[in-house]
Amino acid sequence: MKTKVNTKREQIKKTAKELFWKFGIRKVSTEEICKESGVSKMTFYKHYPNKFALAVEIFEDLADDLYAWYEEMIHSDIPFEEKLKKLIFKKMEAAEKMSMAFIRDVYSAEIPEMREMRVQMMKKNNALTETFLEIGKREGYIRKDLQNNFIQFQLNQIVTMMQDDELLALFDNSQALTKAILDYFFYGIMNPGERKR
After folding, report:
1. Are 52 and 114 spatial neighbours (Cβ–Cβ below 8 Å)?
2. How far, in Å, CA of 38 to CA of 78, rounded?
3. pTM of this prediction?
4. Which has more confidence, 11 or 90?
5. Residue-by-residue DSSP string for 56-109
6. What is the C-alpha to C-alpha distance for residues 111 and 106, in angstroms, rounded to an integer?
7. Is the dihedral of CA 170, 175, 178, 183 positive or negative?
8. Average pLDDT for residues 43-55, to the nearest whole number?
9. pLDDT band of 12, cuts 50, 70, 90
10. What band does 92 get if pLDDT is binned at 50, 70 and 90?
């Protein structure tokens, strides 16, 4: 038996996602979400206590889809290097649709709901990444002498970097920022040809 879809709730989520992605969470008001989705404020508050709870649900839905993809990709038969490229591309693809304002809000310490959500997401992400790193080591792609917790720490620094206003100001869009951070993390600053000397 199929679960009945609440069309009003889904419309609110769809509209809010489009607005959040474009303008960020803080700049979008509950009134704007209601107006754009064609629902009353009473209907909105029937489903969500505030816009931040709505933002968390939207982001958790996105994260669940990404984690399902990540887990399937990790355990696929493709070479590790290809997995790494797919992972980078997936992160870039996700970032492409998000404004810098949205990314700032997600990583902002000023929105408690976002902070709590990030803690839970980090735990799940770390467990999946641990598996990914072990596969990379087993296949000889990652140095075995590097501790996984060190690599995880470095990966987590990406979050810190994305909170830095000075760094954010250097990029016109979130895709360029994500690509630069991931390229630097995985490949460093050395020319691959020079590293072989």
Report:
1. yes
2. 46
3. 0.70
4. 11
5. HHHHHHHHHHHHHHHHHHHTSSS-HHHHHHHHHHHHHHHHHTS-HHHHHHHT-T
6. 8
7. negative
8. 95
9. very high
10. low
Q: What is the mean pLDDT of residues 174-180?
A: 76
Provide φ and ψ at 185, rounded to 5°.
-65, -50
Token pair of 120 as six digits:
């839970």
Domain ranges of the chain: 53-195
Structure tokens at 74: 């990790």
Q: Which two tokens stand for residue 146?
A: 């590097």
The CATH number of the structural domain formed by 53-195 is 1.10.357
> Which pLDDT score is estimated for 16?
96
Residue 27: per-residue pLDDT: 93
- pLDDT-derived band at 15, boundaries 50, 70, 90: very high
CA-atom Rg of the chain in angstroms: 19
Structure tokens at 32: 């704007």
List the structure tokens of 2.
């199929």
Residue 149: CB atoms within 10 A of its CB come to: 11
Q: Amino acid identity of 142?
A: I
Q: What angle do CA 98, 176, 195 make, to 5 degrees?
A: 140
- What is the distance, to the nearest Å, from the Cα of residue 115 to the centroid of all Cα atoms in its chain? 13
Q: Tokens for 122?
A: 């980090």
Tokens found for residue 162: 């994305």
